[in-house]
Design goal:
- This protein is an alpha/beta fold.
- The longest helix is centred in the N-terminal third of the chain and has 18 residues.
- 44% of the residues lie in helices and 14% in strands.
- The chain folds into 3 domains: 111 residues, no CATH class; 60 residues, Sun protein, domain 3 (Alpha-Beta Plaits), CATH 3.30.70; 212 residues, 3-Layer(aba) Sandwich (Rossmann fold), CATH 3.40.50.150.
- The chain starts with a helix and ends with a strand.
- Bound molecules: S-adenosylmethionine.
- S-adenosylmethionine binds next to helix 14 and helix 17.
- Keywords: Methyltransferase, RNA-binding, S-adenosyl-L-methionine, Transferase.
- Belongs to the class I-like SAM-binding methyltransferase superfamily. RsmB/NOP family.
- GO terms for molecular function: methyltransferase activity.
- This is RsmB/NOP family class I SAM-dependent RNA methyltransferase.
Length: 429
Amino acid sequence: MTPAAHALAAIEVLTAIAERRSPAAQALKDWGASRRFAGSGDRARIASLVYDALRSRSSIAWRMGSDEPRALVLGALAFVRGVSAEEIAASFAGAAHAPEPPSEAERAAMAAASLGGAPAHVRGDYPEWLDERFAAAFGDERAEEGTALAQRAPLDLRANALKGDRDKALQALSHLRAEATPLSPLGLRVPLTSDGRGPPVQAEPAHLKGLVEVQDEGSQLAALIAAAGPGEQVVDLCAGAGGKTLALAAQMEGRGQLYAHDSDIRRLAPLHDRATRAGVHNLQIRSPRRGADVLADLHDRADLVLVDAPCTGTGTWRRNPDAKWRMRPGALEIRMSEQDQALDAAAPLVKSGGRLVYVTCSLLADENGHRVAAFLARRPEFSQVPAAEAAIAAGLPSLARFADPSGAILLSPRRSGTDGFFVAVLRRA
Ligand SMILES: C[S@@+](CC[C@H](N)C(=O)[O-])C[C@H]1O[C@@H](n2cnc3c(N)ncnc32)[C@H](O)[C@@H]1O
């Protein structure tokens, strides 16, 4: 397929998303299923263009004067990828499957468009209903934070200390031009292609042998701040597919006991194979069983309980731009109540003197500091420890600058160049 055919396909997919309210991943899958001629490379290029358009949807719409799929794709080419109107016209002209070349009005918009006078939510490409919350979190810098959240995410990996160190991983992935990440001592970053696609790192021998795991640098840092120690009893309460479980396991160097739990058994399923590949031998996966408290024997025993809580994922919008436009106020309310439940489930597991580390990949105070404050009011036996101190103790003094006034750490694409993460460290008396 030609670049023009990719643009036409991206317009078709964005039309399906708008008309059928389909999630982007589903719309892309449906598009591919009915067009077998498109190979995997074509599908990846189309997806990349669709996601570029979605990441910057409101600022493109403002500049193009339209939020129609065609305007979004032209705008993604022009403003995200820096393709000139002339180049676009030349590539569309005469191609078999191609959108109409840009009209005079479209060319003028692409050449002259500016975001001057646009409100913060348009400049920052986030939903208008979240403006107040973004203002509470970031004040006058909310548009810049939003803009950083609308960039493409890098492809980050974590070197698994159970299998080797970062130098070994860098060596193993030197053909992908992997480089060390700036903040995590375990992190590697693999460059993307100019149209935003990453190499298939999961097929690399280094991944198949467990030397590296795909994990955003912010997620790595959250796990490092939690600082599971060798010999400790550690519970990862909301383990999901185990991204942070595996990071905690590596910190424990095979000593002590790690327990992974999730209320949704399907999410835990991949962890069994992932742990084997990563060489983790001190992990018990406690799958949920209807009507049973599968963690009952751990009450008052854990040195560390990690609550990597379910959240709106506002911090990961770079990877999932579809989610930011699909998010509704009702979903935020549900997540807040789930966060309170997860914290209440974690509290009795922590032993006297033990830590409860609360993590979200959200940037909204409702899900972060407000949940911690409400928990501390319900559970006076816990108090908050400055996360900067925990970071320094974990050998990460450079993270102290990301501390917020409450003592938690807040990472974001703009602040730390990572996905957005909130980390609060609580200690039980
Ligand atoms: C942010 S995801 C976890 C991601 C995972 N820790 C990782 O690093 O890959 C949150 C998880 O919490 C789970 N969850 C929600 N409420 C829970 C609860 N009360 N107890 C345990 N798990 C819960 C969800 O099923 C979901 O898998």
